[in-house]
């Protein structure tokens, strides 16, 4: 058999007059145009309407025209006054303005820092509960009682037997002077106020004026005190102007805001 005959047998049995598109149409039942119309589009892939593009363009043009007719709507000369100069801060650059607050709150906050810095918590504990070698400050009659006696305990220390909250303490060496660790009338006033108003204690504020008088009182003697001396010579309240708990004071100086600067 010839090659021509073999090739003819392998070709599809199609009539040369058959229209392929019409044949497909007959099989599918739809025209090619109808098939394209019935094609499903994924969400978000639909073509944007020309009307939507046209309307958006009009909105942009109208908005630009309105802003353009606003004149100095965003002009620097309209938002900044002529000749305006910012004044320097009275506190100096970089210093934040801290508002005044109630005296008791600020004294206690400052006193807590002094209590930690002076290492008082090492013996009396951060909770004021004390320990085997140191009496408690929480519930102590020495803390909430005479401010003069409390000040001398801090400034001179105490030795010998002393009864606190119904229990007698007599630790070797006693308590040493904390005057150097406290440092100054302001810190002494804050520390005493903190001790008198923490861990359930409730006492009056020890003002800076009272603390100054305590320092003057301490100049008359040296060495540690005893419980007997404290009761005999210092069982009194320190002299000085009293400070109400809600009095507004400066957070840095702890002085009333209407008091003259020292």
Describe this structure in words.
This protein is mainly alpha-helical. It has a domain of 137 residues: Cytochrome c-like domain (Cytochrome Bc1 Complex, Chain D, domain 2). The chain contains 13 helices and four strands. The N and C termini lie far apart (129 Å).
Helices, by number, come to 13
The low-confidence parts are none
- The backbone outline, from C-alpha atoms, is elongated
Q: Under CATH, the topology of one domain is which?
A: Cytochrome Bc1 Complex, Chain D, domain 2
The main pleated sheet reads as: 2 strands, antiparallel
Write the layout of secondary structure elements.
Layout: H1 3-10, H2 20-28, H3 32-37, H4 50-68, H5 76-79, E1 101-102, H6 103-117, H7 121-124, H8 141-144, H9 147-156, E2 162-164, E3 167-169, H10 179-182, H11 185-196, H12 208-218, H13 227-233, E4 248-249
Antiparallel strand pairs: 1-4, 2-3
Helix pairs in contact: 6-11, 9-12, 11-12
Primary descriptors:
single chain, 262 residues, mainly alpha, Cytochrome Bc1 Complex, Chain D, domain 2, two-stranded antiparallel ribbon, 4 strands, 4% strand, elongated
Quick recap:
The protein is mostly helical.
């Amino acid at each position: 058999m010839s090659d021509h005959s073999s090739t003819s047998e392998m070709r599809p049995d199609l009539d040369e007059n058959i229209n392929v598109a019409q044949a497909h149409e007959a099989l599918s039942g739809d025209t090619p145009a109808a098939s394209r119309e019935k094609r499903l589009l994924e969400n978000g892939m639909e073509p944007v309407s020309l009307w939507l593009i046209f309307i958006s363009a009009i909105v942009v043009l109208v908005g630009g025209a309105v802003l353009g007719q606003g004149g100095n709507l965003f002009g620097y000369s309209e938002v900044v006054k002529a000749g305006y100069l910012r004044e320097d801060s009275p506190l100096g650059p970089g210093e934040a303005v801290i508002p005044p607050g109630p005296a008791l709150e600020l004294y206690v906050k400052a006193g807590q820092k002094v209590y930690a810095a002076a290492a008082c918590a090492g013996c009396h504990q951060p909770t004021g509960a004390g320990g085997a070698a140191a009496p408690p400050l929480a519930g102590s009659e020495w803390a909430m009682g005479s401010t003069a006696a409390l000040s001398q305990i801090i400034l001179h220390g105490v030795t010998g037997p002393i009864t606190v909250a119904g229990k007698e303490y007599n630790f070797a060496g006693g308590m040493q002077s904390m005057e150097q660790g406290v440092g100054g009338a302001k810190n002494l006033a804050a520390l005493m106020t903190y001790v008198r108003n923490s861990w359930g204690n409730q006492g009056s504020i020890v003002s800076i004026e009272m603390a100054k008088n305590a320092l003057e009182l301490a100049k008359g003697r040296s060495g540690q005190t005893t419980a007997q001396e404290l009761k005999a010579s210092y069982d009194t309240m320190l002299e000085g102007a009293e400070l109400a708990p809600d009095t507004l004071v400066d957070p840095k100086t702890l002085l009333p805001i209407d008091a003259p600067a020292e």
